[in-house]
Amino acid sequence: MKKSLLLLFLFCSAIIAFSQNELLVRSNDKGLYLKHTVAAKENFFSIGRLYNVPAKDIAAYNSIDMNHGLAIGQEINIPLHAANFTQSEKKGRPVYYVVGEKEGLYRVSVKHNKVLMANLRSWNHLADDNITSGKKLIVGYLNSTEANSIVQKPLQPVEKKSAAEIKKDVVVTDLPKEKKEETTAQITEKKVDPSVRKAPVTPDPQVGGANGGAGYFKPLFETQIKTQSAKKEQTATAGIFKTASGWQDAKYYALLDGVEAGTIVRIVNPANNKAVYAKVLGEMSGIRQNQGYDIRMSNAAASALEVTDAEKFIVRVNY
Fold first, then answer.
1. How far apart, in whole angstroms, are the C-alpha atoms of residue 135 and residue 259?
2. What is the side-by-side strand order in the sheet with 136-142?
3. With contact defined as beta carbons under 8 Å apart, do 194 and 260 qualify?
4. Within 10 Å of residue 188's Cβ, how many Cβ atoms?
5. From the centroid of its chain, how far is CA 61?
6. Of residues 254 and 198, which shows the higher confidence score?
């Protein structure tokens, strides 16, 4: 029963991530395709079902031996063809194209299988053929049973979310495969002990950059402490895990025992008094790589703190 629930959780994580990302079409000498980032427990067959493409076709399109499997965080290309992509009717999940410099509607049509310009006007509510660079245009629809059953939902910026919604934001890349699966299994929701006494919030340390350089989650921390004052501050031995997240969007993440998944924590580098705000993905216990650490943070977070010792360093954590 537990195994079935875990598999359901991981499948839902992939579906949520899929539903909250727009499908952007790309092209190469093989034709039109979509990019997909592999999530935990995904394989050729589950991805194939999601996009209505035979598993062997995905492997062949990417020149990958199916016997080698896929890695978490790996990007693969998903071919678009007559079986899973329609440009004759409005049916399925919309697939977008970002208009390039000096491109007109006719050029967009030619680049995408000569889709009827009348369809482009209708799908995108265009009064004429004038389009601007950077505009997203629907150029067709992904047609698969699973994709068609997914309803797109806007990202919610404040509320604490389920473990599945939290996991979609980040792909851990530096743990062995079996440990990544353990990390995924550990990301479960916990109840906050109402008996824990709340301590006053200390003044915010010096920061700089977007949101003061503290990152995307700083406003969420400020909203969080309005309803629940920060209750704990500790000095912790910190380490780093590698992820592709945070370098462009300043979304920083952390692993921390005893803290509810989804909580925003403030992490301060006492060496320079710089701070970042990170979302807790789950706990560290039970994973060998985490021994000797009180907290691990994404490499983008450590970079924002200007950490000089990437192996082990001291931080202050407030939540």
1. 42
2. 23-24, 93-98, 136-142, 85-86
3. no
4. 13
5. 24
6. 254
